[in-house]
Records
---
Amino acid sequence: MKTIRLISALALTALLMCSCGGKKQQNIIDLPREATPPAIQAAVDAILAGDEADPSVTFESLMVLKHGNVIFEDWYGEAAPDIPHAMHSVSKSFTATAIGMLVDQGKISVNDKLVDFFPEDCPEEMSDNLKAITVHNLLTMNCGHETEVNRRGADNWVKAFLAHPVTKTPGTWYCYNSMGTYMLSAIAQKVSGEKVLDFLDTRLFQPLHIEKPQWEESPQGINAGGWGLYLKTEDMAKFGQLFLQKGKWNGEQLISENWVAEASKYQVPSVPAGTRPDNAAERGLTPENSTFMLGYGYQMWMCPEGAYRADGARGQYIIVYPDADAVIAVTADSNNLQAEQDLIYKYLFPALKALK
């Protein structure tokens, strides 16, 4: 596996004049480029043909890395290299990374109790289940809620989360819950004294040469955590490459290898967002027909063939494929997220696996 190295100013100048597969670049490039192999071009053509055949799938950008080099990139419709895209729940993986950095620094533990961070916002009477919720439970969507916490109309989102009924024993019940990730953002801000955006800016975004992005906030001035981050496609690809390189970038260990391993491995069983674990079978969902059934890590979904992904609504993906030393970054506006993934697994995975 190659470790990314910044390319020279001369190379940058040359690269700014062209791109591998599509529109001319307007933003600074520091991921190295290679010519697109015919097999990869054929795989992308097949994906786009599938996109055109299925109106529920609409790709807006696609970037493919092999051995740390961009071997395909293109933007479609109104999308462009220099326009940040709404990440939706891909934001969650960045919030989890901030938590990982704080764990690496010894400032928090995944076994720390949620209520200990916010004693002033806890209800007067707390259930044993609420008191049992840990950072690990938040990371793995296993807080014990049977329904997602509703923040609408709440003056204080932390209080709203802590007031929501915890009907299951934490650690035993998967419920996709974006507000759980908001609580991770709130924890990170409480511990570090910085918003997650500012915390990551100096520790992640600047080292990766990612221009400080926008990130939505709550009324309390806490980054949304589970949504609201805006990034360019190449920014997404860099984040995936950092994980592929086990947290190392230009010789610097930005995230510990241990955290990358824990975040990207199967931690708990999972079901699609909005699905209860006890009715997945009734809906005919299996690991064979739904990648959302393959398991969940720390704000990362498991994929076929040992891959894993950051995953956002409308089809935003950062797919890390260690067996092929590859990363795939996608922005989209799709109604059928499984169909979009299936096109990638069907055509790009075997092409990347076969490519030396």
Note: The chain has a mean pLDDT of 92.
---
Amino acid sequence: MIALPSGARIWLACGVTDLRNGFDGLAGLVQRQLAEDAFSGQLFVFRGRRGDRIKIIWWDGDGLCLFAKRLELGRFIWPRAASGAVHLSAAQLSMLLEGIDWRRAQRTHTPQLAV
């Protein structure tokens, strides 16, 4: 995974996206549907109709980067909303990319008092 700059915000575009879109099409969706600046350094994640493919668009300061992933088994977990965007942490994005349900991540240990 390419290291993201600290403080970069990550957005999931709710609903289904036509993943035939490339750099310009996805940047246009960011601007028209999400009312965000595609050249802000934030990451925007889109999911296709079948749910097994995603694309991420990101401005790294020099140009747009487009990342794509297809799961061989299973589907990417996505919000039920038909429009809008959901903010994710870097850890949640990592889980999403691994096919893990990022919405219900649970810690395996609850810290106790050290007294």
Note: The radius of gyration is 15 Å.
---
Amino acid sequence: MKCKNCEQQLLEENNYCNRCGAKVIHYRLTLKNVGEEFSQVFLNIDNTFLRTFLQMFIYPHRVILDYISGVRKRYLNVISYFTIALTLAGFQLFILRKFYPEALEMPDFYGNTKAVIDLNWLFDYYSMLMLIYLPIYALIARLSFIKYKKFNYTEHLVTMTYLMAHFTIVSVLVILPIVMLGGNYIEVSSLLNIFLFFHACYTYKKLYPLNVKQLLFSIFLFFVFTTIIFIVVEIIFIAYLFLTGEMQEIIEATRAAQSR
């Protein structure tokens, strides 16, 4: 028989292709073997997803440095990890918008009433915004640590993608149960951003490594560059909404919500 992926000639006893490394499938597709493959990939304690997820809590720099240095088998690659994160985030938003819409209301942190702000546009563009923010965050990180010249822009992009993917997966695991118990999505997300901040600081401190003074200065630069770049990005995004007419829809939806 031949490999179905690369047409390499195979021996009867081959379980993997000698050329492309693909697994040789000897059986007909059934629900049973599909379930077995799923459990091997996602539920087995030795699989790369769980190993990557657990290591990103304790040794995130090892996962990132291994990928940058060319290690591909030990941990889940950055694109797959980010894809899983986006899938889970989309599933979470579907559940929340379908069954817990009240949890998506913007809370009023300064009074006893809920602030009436329509955030549907934010949830509609959630995946696109994540894809836009990643290269921006990578650019900000590159500028903030440019003095040390250890990582190039692409390596910062890998770092930020791993960090954002991990944060997203953790958020889904935390937010859904809390919302089901009556919590507010915005409030919990805001608190989880503190986790993202300290986790990112810890990761970058380990990646370089930096002393406390160097780390604090880099964090200061990060906030400065973030403020400047995101003001520019927000102006561009608002201009886009005006040009496409979607800003008027957001304004009308907000007015309708206020009039109720």
Note: The longest helix spans residues 212-244.
---
Amino acid sequence: MAATPYETQAIYNLQRYLRQLSRFDPAIPAVDEDGIFGEETRASLSAFQKKYGLPITGTADPETWARLFNEYLASVEAYTRPAPVYLFPRFPTDYSVGRGDENLLVGVIQYLLREITALYGRDASLIPLDGVFGAVTEEAVRDFQTVNRLPPDGRVDRITWNRLAESRIREVNEYGGE
């Protein structure tokens, strides 16, 4: 007998929950999200039930379903990356930050420059964290632009900002995050 559309969707959800948990818990085997309640899904569900002290039936009874859903939500919350914060304005499209500007964005640029400068073994403490785009910040931006083969104009436009952000993201990913 074929599953109804509601049953198929429930199986997809069940498999999605088990798959999420299996990413971070080797005791729960990964399953394909195919909407078919086969042996692979039954085995994964049984492993989940065993791990959480539930009766090992290999079926999604109400107690198992509720626990699985709660554990799925907790896993998503625990392992989802933090939401990004977009600081660089989208408009006007030719926006840039340069010498004489004073604001939070300049402080973030200074922070990023410090982090990246330290990676190259240079004295990052020379770059101020005061939110004021002065001569030292401008020179650090020029150095960064030169290393990244950008026009070294000492201003942070969208292209320079994106390279700064990408450099920071690469650093964080390389060392397993923060």
Note: The chain has a mean pLDDT of 93.
